[in-house]
Amino acid sequence: MSVISDFAQRVLFKLGWIAIFAGCAIIGGESYAGLSFTAATARVTGIIQKCGLVDATGRGIKYVGDGTCAEMEDMKAEMAPRQLELRPYRAVNVSFNDKNGQEVTSTAHLAGLGVQNPKAGDSVAILYNPSHPAIVRGPANIPAFAYIALLAGIVMQFMRRQLAQPASSAPRSNPAARISNSAPVHAPQHRMPVSATAGGFGRRSR
User: Fold this and answer.
1) Which of 154, 145, 156 lies closest to 27, judged by CA?
2) How far does Cα 104 stand from its chain's mean position?
């Protein structure tokens, strides 16, 4: 039973910290974007189809290029025999004025803007990078699963502590208590026979 308890504690410890770190990373990233980017209202000027060129042969997915699907097809042919994959997506052309009043045009991933089925002429809320205004994204939006992951990690750590508590709170033997509760041991005493009189030491009878 102790082996199962130790294994459960290790699993809860690792999964709990992974969930906590994942939740904090998502929440921190979205909060940082909301603080470092500048909010603006952009006008949708068009919806276009674009393609990303990715290399999924190794560990993870590596984006090799991004542009029109025709451009990515040419790049894929040039980089043969590498196994590359085209991934089409919808992009949105937007136009807005930055904090200096300069008009900026940019293209953003539709999913990154967080809007559903926009049309030309619609107004959308965006965040742009003040140093590079052409870099735009949707408003900071912390997904619910980030809070769920954070809460789940805290619960796992609490459960791990509860599993470890009985073993650590078990009564321990106290050597000092055993010694104090034991019966006292007296060393044997030997007395020499002595005859005494009223006036002091007398003679021993023969």
Assistant:
1) 145
2) 37
Determine the 3-state secondary structure of 7 from DSSP.
helix
pTM over 0.85: no
Cβ burial of 12 (10 Å; 0-12, 13-18, 19+) is buried
Helices marked H in the chain: 2-36, 69-78, 110-113, 144-168, 175-181
Domain ranges of the chain: 1-37+140-167, 38-128
The answer to whether residues 115 and 90 touch, using CB atoms and an 8 Å cutoff, is: no
Query: Phi, psi (5° rounding) for residue 16?
Result: -60, -45
Are 65 and 72 spatial neighbours (Cβ–Cβ below 8 Å)?
Answer: yes
20 with 150: CB under 8 angstroms?
A: yes
Question: What is the radius of gyration, based on Cα positions, of the chain?
Answer: 40
What is the average pLDDT value for the chain, to the nearest integer? 76
Residue 107: φ, ψ to 5°: -125, 130
129 vs 96: CA distance, rounded Å = 13
Q: What is the pLDDT of residues 62-92, one digit of tens each?
A: 878 888 889 889 888 888 777 888 888 888 9
Look up residue 184 and give its DSSP letter. Answer: P
Buried/exposed code over 81-107 (b: 16+ C-beta within 10 A; e: otherwise): eeebeeeeeebbbbebeeeeeeebebb
